[in-house]
Structure to design on (315 residues):
């Protein structure tokens, strides 16, 4: 007797994993949850009759295993230093690495490729090109971005100064958030009482609908204000943590920057750069610094690294 399993996944609070936001989608989804796999010993199983004969099932599994053994092995891993980070400043689509074809190389060996905007490929959009942002050589962009990352790590006082300037700006009080949350709670109670009154026949439909509509509109406005204020307070708290740590981290990695290999450069760039925006004649590097980014060299055995975060830098 076969069985079917339930509870293979569970929802947990959302934790950002992407290097950059998807085009046209917010960084924080409406339903802030992440789906995770559950260990097999925690599944709930229910016996069901088998759909195919056991002998046939075994034969198919053996054939699948044989096919996998003879499958062509594909190269995996990143081929470009900024892979997954480059976006178009004109249309918002991602850039991808495009190697030089043999015909375009004209017999010469090239040690670079091109970053090209997806919107510039007409075949992807029914034969119509959406973006005219030109492609750009990978070696030049890679060198420019790495130079900016090095400058940030060699002159951490620039970042710390900017964060301190931000902290000097007016910051909302935590009490403002408590006041908003109290107003939201009162409005929800008011809506519940109004619904109860309508259900009990104390008010008619003509009076109920406009009143509940106004209350819900007001509730939505207050909830949005509360979310925005909570985000501001959270960012301010993160900035206060960052200011005290950025110089220490930069001092740890500065010694290895001169001789950093390709993999080390890519890891540092992925940890510190949120995205690289390419426009006509311009490359803009947007940094990110997480609230608790630092690990000491003794813990990593080499250059210290940052945990990923989504707080953009002043640039």
């Amino acid at each position: 007797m076969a069985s079917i399993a339930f509870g293979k996944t569970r929802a947990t609070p959302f934790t950002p994993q992407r290097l950059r936001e998807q085009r046209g989608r917010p960084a924080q989804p409406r339903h802030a949850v992440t789906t995770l796999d559950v260990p097999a010993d925690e599944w709930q199983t229910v016996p069901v009759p088998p759909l195919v004969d056991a002998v046939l099932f075994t034969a198919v599994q053996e054939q699948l295993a044989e096919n996998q053994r003879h499958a062509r092995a594909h190269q995996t891993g990143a081929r470009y230093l900024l892979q997954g980070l480059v976006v178009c400043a004109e249309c918002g689509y991602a850039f991808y690495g495009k190697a030089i074809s043999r015909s375009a190389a004209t017999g010469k060996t090239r040690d670079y490729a091109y970053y090209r905007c997806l919107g510039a490929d007409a075949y992807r959009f029914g034969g119509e090109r959406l973006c005219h942002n030109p492609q750009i050589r990978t070696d030049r962009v890679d060198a420019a971005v790495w130079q900016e990352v090095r400058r940030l790590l060699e002159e951490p006082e620039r970042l710390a100064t900017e964060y301190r300037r931000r902290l000097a700006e007016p910051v909302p009080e935590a009490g403002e958030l408590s006041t908003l949350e109290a107003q939201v709670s009162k409005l929800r109670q008011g809506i519940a009482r109004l619904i109860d009154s309508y259900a009990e026949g104390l008010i008619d439909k003509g009076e109920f609908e406009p009143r509940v509509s106004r209350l819900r509109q007001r509730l939505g406005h207050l909830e949005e204000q509360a979310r925005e204020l909570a985000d501001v307070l959270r960012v301010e708290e993160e900035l206060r943590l960052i200011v005290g740590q950025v110089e220490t981290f930069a001092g740890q990695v500065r010694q290895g920057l001169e001789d950093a290999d390709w993999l080390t450069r890519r890891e540092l760039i992925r940890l510190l750069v949120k995205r690289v925006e390419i426009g006509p004649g311009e490359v803009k590097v947007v940094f990110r610094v997480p609230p608790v980014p630092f690990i000491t060299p003794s813990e990593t055995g080499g250059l210290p690294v940052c945990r990923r975060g989504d707080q953009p830098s002043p640039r």
Summary: Residues 2-70 form one domain. The longest strand covers residues 273-279.
